[in-house]
Automatic annotation (TrEMBL):
Swiss-Prot/TrEMBL keywords: ATP-binding, Nucleotide-binding, Transport
Transport as UniProt keyword: yes
Pfam families the UniProt entry points to: ABC_tran (PF00005)
Domain spans labelled ABC transporter: 8-243
Nucleotidyltransferase among keywords: no
GO MF annotation list: ATP binding; ATP hydrolysis activity
Protein name per its UniProtKB record: ATP-binding cassette domain-containing protein
Length: 272
């Protein structure tokens, strides 16, 4: 993969779950080095899109390429690919009976044969990167929500993945902790040379650190452009989403109604 190859590319992708189409006609290309915000209301299919990137969900149609290869279905090849993808899951997924340092060490112990002293040094470096070196011996229950999220972030970074995926990284955090986490996401992206995909409905906290925004609603990409373009968009769907209004062209029921005319024809391609 050359530097010019997009780190993530979805081509004419359709994603089905439970026998129902959740997302269709997804075209999205993420260049290296960028922070991309994937926004959308609850139930719009953000987690479904992530599942396709990590190979948890195979596309019903189209191609999903990550790190220069089509996401494989064979288990071994998929595990190999996943080593290059750091995922910060909703919640933290920290093991409560392990210290912060032990949590960060988990992926290193599972996926490398490095000696304990090297792992300990790498763990200290990762905790330092998220500003928590002093919390190495603390248990998750002793940490604030924001600190615990940063430990989870350090763990996601443990194997030096070139691609980071954040699934609702701000859930349950207060505005100050949210600001700290988003600044960290941006800073780590730039200093470590990562590419970051942030899936969230926290628009106003995320846009300031994003290079590019994609909005999904009603089963498709309905906006793809810069944060500034998003904020000045006059598209009724985008406006409704940004203002959090219950009434408008976005359907908030579980099943996207593809036959509805609100979307047909005016969904811009998600190529960035
Ligand atoms: N495993 C599944 N089986 C069947 N349907 C599913 C499954 N997972 C999700 N869905 C459906 O797919 C749609 C999109 O769900 P998804 O979780 O991707 O949305 P989301 O945008 O991530 O929502 P939230 O912001 O609430 O997490 C929803 O209608 C949901 O009910």
């Amino acid at each position: 993969m050359t530097d010019a190859t997009p780190i993530v590319r979805l081509t004419d992708v359709r994603l089905d779950r439970g026998g129902r189409t959740v997302l269709r006609d997804i075209n999205l290309s993420v260049p290296r080095g960028q922070v991309i915000a994937v926004l959308g209301p609850s139930g719009s299919g953000k987690s479904t899109l992530l599942a396709a990137l990590t190979g948890e969900l195979a596309p019903a149609a189209g191609t999903v390429e990550v790190l220069g290869q089509v996401v494989p279905q064979a288990k071994r090849a998929l595990l190999e690919l996943r080593k290059g993808i750091g995922v910060l899951l909703q919640g933290n997924g920290l093991l409560t009976d392990l210290t912060a340092a032990e949590n960060v060490a988990l992926p290193l112990r599972a996926h490398t044969d490095l000696p304990a002293a090297v792992i300990a040094r790498l763990v200290r470096m990762k905790l330092h990167a998220v500003g928590l070196r002093a919390a190495a011996d603390a248990f998750p229950r002793e940490l604030s929500g924001g600190m615990a999220r940063r430990v989870a972030l350090a763990r996601a970074l443990a194997l030096d993945p070139p691609l980071m995926i954040y699934d609702e990284p701000l859930t349950g955090l207060d505005p100050i902790a949210s600001g700290v986490v988003m600044d960290l996401v941006r800073r780590l992206n730039d200093t470590l040379g990562l590419t970051s995909i942030i899936v969230t409905h926290h628009v106003h906290e995320t846009l300031p650190v994003a290079d590019h925004a994609v909005v999904i609603a009603n089963g498709a990409i309905v906006f793809s452009g810069s944060p500034a373009e998003l904020e000045t968009s006059t598209d009724p769907l985008v406006r409704q989403f940004l203002r959090g209004e219950p009434d408008g062209p976005i359907h908030f029921d579980a099943a996207p109604r593809f036959a509805d005319s609100a979307l047909t024809g005016n969904a811009p391609a998600g190529v960035i």
